[in-house]
From TrEMBL:
UniProt cross-references to PROSITE patterns, sorted A to Z: VOC (PS51819)
Name of the protein this chain belongs to: Uncharacterized protein
Pfam families: Ble-like_N
Organism domain of life: Bacteria
Length: 130
């Protein structure tokens, strides 16, 4: 099974590393212009400074405050874990997006990170809870 590496441009790498560290994530392979947030054994989010990211991109880098190119989703084990990660994100400076939702077999909350990238945190619910 291949691993997944998602690349995100960030304005201030130190600020982004602090944010994701405050959420409890570990890092791998940090340099002056990039850091890898370990999501799981098979998934990492690569934080790249905007100039470094632009060097890999074939088109203009989108401004996440103006457009949504992707929504990153973190799957958690239960609603308490969803709420715990959301509270960490908000305490670290994230902006909540929408209201908590419990429908369609899942519990879900959302936030924008410090650079405006949209994240959802969700868990699947047993049929009797959805």
């Amino acid at each position: 099974m291949p691993a997944l590496f998602v690349n995100l441009p960030v304005k201030d790498l130190d600020r982004a590393k602090k944010f994701f560290g405050d959420l409890g994530f570990d890092f791998f392979g940090m340099t002056d212009d990039m850091a890898s947030v370990v999501i799981s054994q098979d998934a990492q989010v690569m934080l790249l400074t905007e100039p470094t990211f632009a060097g890999y991109a074939r088109t203009r880098v989108a401004d996440p405050a103006e457009t949504t190119q992707l929504i990153l989703v973190l799957g958690m084990g239960d609603p308490a874990e969803v709420d715990e990660l959301m509270e960490k994100a908000l305490a670290a400076g994230a902006t909540e997006i929408g209201e908590p939702a419990r429908a369609h077999g899942r519990y879900q909350r959302g936030f924008a990170d410090l650079d405006g990238h949209q994240w959802s945190v969700l868990c699947l619910l047993p049929p009797e809870e959805s």
